[in-house]
Amino acid sequence: MRTFLLSLVFLACAFPSPYPAEFVTSANGLRADVYHLPPAPVVYQNSTALTFSPTAFTLIQGSHHAVLVDAPATGAQATNLTAWIKATLGPRKSLKYIYITHGHGDHFFTAPLICAAFPGCQVVAREDVNAHMHEQYEEPLFSSLWLSLFPGGQITSVPFNASYILREADRTFMLEGHALRAVEVGQGDTYNSTVLHVPDLELVVGGDVIYGKCHQLFVEDWTAELRQQWIQSLDRAAALKPAFVVPSHTKPGDGFAPSHIRDTKTYIRTWERVLAQSKSWEELEGEMKKAFPFRDGSFILRWSSQAPFGASSIVA
């Protein structure tokens, strides 16, 4: 019987991490839980005042095995996430797959590190997402973005291929007889984005297509046409008719309602309007803060605001 309780559970006594986890739903022999990484401090334009967006990682478990959706950027984050996975699964279950929703480094860099803690674990990605992952290591992007934001050896990732590639004709993989569908919806905050659809849980894990209460990244959505494509991608996610939606960038307590899809559209349309009226990146940033005062991710808002005015120090 489906459980609709969306209770916030702190597991500090069970594993050595200060980060909270939330139960999402359970049905048909599957269960979904979410682990929250808090906003991470970054170094940007000689300042440490900004933070990277909080990020959620979804664990879908059956009777014996589990799937993690995405993996964080830094080694310390991966260590804490791995400890939580082990505490959540217990000694009789193991992590079988890590599914990568899209090719941004904060969603896959540490996947091999986490997999190494679970013998037989495989990194799963669509073929085009795997190719996109390799682009994150290209210079000057890798140094000007990832190594600059997280200095001092926090990023130790090297290029790798997913060990389980989903080809064009093979968009589904299985967990104990349950189908997990890698649905390419198109443009999100980056191109060829996917969501993971778990029909037996009525669940969509939204990657960077669907946002919670976090500022949305527009650096790769620099035209009105691309932003409209993002809205169309949200319509494709909504067409899956999920009862539960987990955005990748969300905060504890945001909940897992399908209304995140609508709210992500609202943010895009507000950005469109405010961008058209703004004469500087400072004005754009300030007006978006006023419009969405409770959203986190100050670095993402700063970078997105600066990009249209050529003020960013990140070189792609």
TrEMBL record:
Residues 1-21 form the signal peptide. This is Metallo-beta-lactamase domain-containing protein. Residues 54-249 form the Metallo-beta-lactamase domain. The lineage of its organism: Eukaryota, Fungi, Dikarya, Ascomycota, Pezizomycotina. The keyword Ligase does not apply. Keywords: Signal. InterPro entries: Metallo-B-lactamas, NDM-1-like, RibonucZ/Hydroxyglut_hydro. Gene3D superfamilies: Ribonuclease Z/Hydroxyacylglutathione hydrolase-like. Transmembrane segments: none annotated. The keyword rRNA processing does not apply.
